[in-house]
Automatic annotation (TrEMBL):
This is TRAP transporter solute receptor, DctP family. The lineage of its organism: Bacteria, Pseudomonadati, Pseudomonadota, Alphaproteobacteria, Rhodobacterales. NCBIfam families: TAT_signal_seq. InterPro entries: DctP_fam (IPR018389), SBP_TakP-like (IPR026289), TAT_signal (IPR006311), TAT_signal_bac_arc (IPR019546), TRAP_DctP_sf (IPR038404). PROSITE patterns: TAT (PS51318).
């Protein structure tokens, strides 16, 4: 049964019971719903779990209680990587997670989270909101019974935590690294082994030696998870996610059964978090990096240019293979790359040029 059918039957039964026995009308009869949100991270965890709760609270408040969102942390309702299936089946109503977790269903989902050497956060938002990205996303998700929206971004990812130095691309061969999405496929391409783990399992895997390296987001989240206790070297910048978008997924039957007003509440709550969340990360990354370096003696390293060049070559192969895998992924790839080619020139003439000028001015 679909959600819409269940709701119709429920309302019919309730109406009969109310007429016969004078009972109070149930919540659904007044248009109220309680929505379950499954998430990909611990509940109320800084940056990510907090974002999920903020979205839920915003929906509840803006709808004046018509929609009450109950937020579940990773593993409380379903395991983090099963949130999509839970929403698609109707076992949950919403998810807050990263789209590359669903790459096993369609490689196209990766493009709506983050692409190695791809768009920055501002560029990615421009593609989603103004150059057809959202429409393509809906085309990919619809076949699974889901619709999703941008709902946060941890911004450019750090390179990750390593138990050995990376001085050449040979040091990546045989390396077991926690890294999802296209970034993981790039590590595979250069001879390493990508492992996909929820954030809450990275520390123990690093500490036990089950993995040799791992990445999650950047200084703020990494400090919270205590990765500095399990790995010596912290590499930055990363290559894998120059943007790291989070998304709010909604069961499609539920979405279609909602009023236009309630749909707008959900879209606006997601859009609000797409501003609040990256600001939260930027506000906390710098002070967290300072703590890691000064209080915990973390060694900050950068990947050599040779390594970045080889990772770039591997990325081209991975993306080309993804585009060839199926027509819809190829369609998303073409749109993404076309806009990346267009927007990168302006980014270099605006943001990048300004940052160079600012560095000169601050150093003088």
């Amino acid at each position: 049964m679909t959600i819409k059918t269940n709701r119709r039957n429920f309302l019919t039964t309730a109406a009969v019971a109310t007429a016969a026995g004078g009972l109070a009308a149930p919540a659904y009869a007044t248009g109220k719903r309680t929505l379950k949100m499954a998430t990909g991270w611990p509940k109320k965890f800084p940056g990510l779990g907090v974002a999920s709760q903020r979205i839920g609270d915003a929906i509840t408040a803006a709808s004046d209680g018509r929609l009450t969102v109950e937020v579940f942390g990773a593993g409380e309702l379903v395991p983090p990587f099963e949130a999509f299936d839970a929403v698609a089946s109707g076992a949950a109503d919403l998810y807050h997670a990263a789209e590359y977790y669903w790459q096993g269903k369609s490689t196209a989902f990766n493009f709506f989270a983050g692409v190695p050497f791809g768009m920055t956060t501002a560029e990615h938002n421009a593609w989603i909101y103004h150059r057809g990205g959202q429409e393509l996303w809906e085309e990919v998700s619809a076949s699974f019974g889901v619709i999703a929206f941008m709902a946060g971004n941890s911004s450019a990812q750090a390179g990750g935590w390593f138990n050995k130095e990376i001085n050449s691309v040979d040091d990546l061969k045989g390396l077991k690294m926690r890294i999802p999405g296209f970034g993981g496929k790039v590590i595979d391409e250069v001879g390493g082994t990508a492992v996909t783990l929820p954030g809450g399992e990275i520390f123990s895997a690093l500490q036990s030696g089950a993995i040799d390296a791992g990445e999650m987001a950047g200084p703020w989240i990494d400090l919270g998870f205590g990765f500095y206790k399990a790995a010596k070297y912290f590499y930055n910048p990363g290559f894998q996610e120059p943007t790291s978008a989070e998304s709010l997924g909604v069961n499609l039957d539920l979405w279609n059964d909602m009023s236009a007003a309630d749909q707008q509440v959900i879209k606006l709550a997601a859009a609000q978090e797409n501003v609040m969340n990256p600001a939260d990360f930027i506000a906390n990354h710098s002070r967290s990096l300072d703590i890691l370096l000064k209080e915990h003696g973390v060694e900050l390293r950068s990947f050599p240019d040779e390594v970045m060049i080889e990772l770039g070559k591997a990325t081209k192969t991975v993306l080309a293979d993804a585009a060839a895998a199926d027509p819809l992924t190829g369609k998303v790839y073409e749109s993404y790359m076309e806009f990346l080619d267009e927007v990168s020139g302006w980014t270099e003439q605006s943001e990048q040029a300004y940052l160079r000028a600012r560095s000169l001015a601050r150093a003088s």
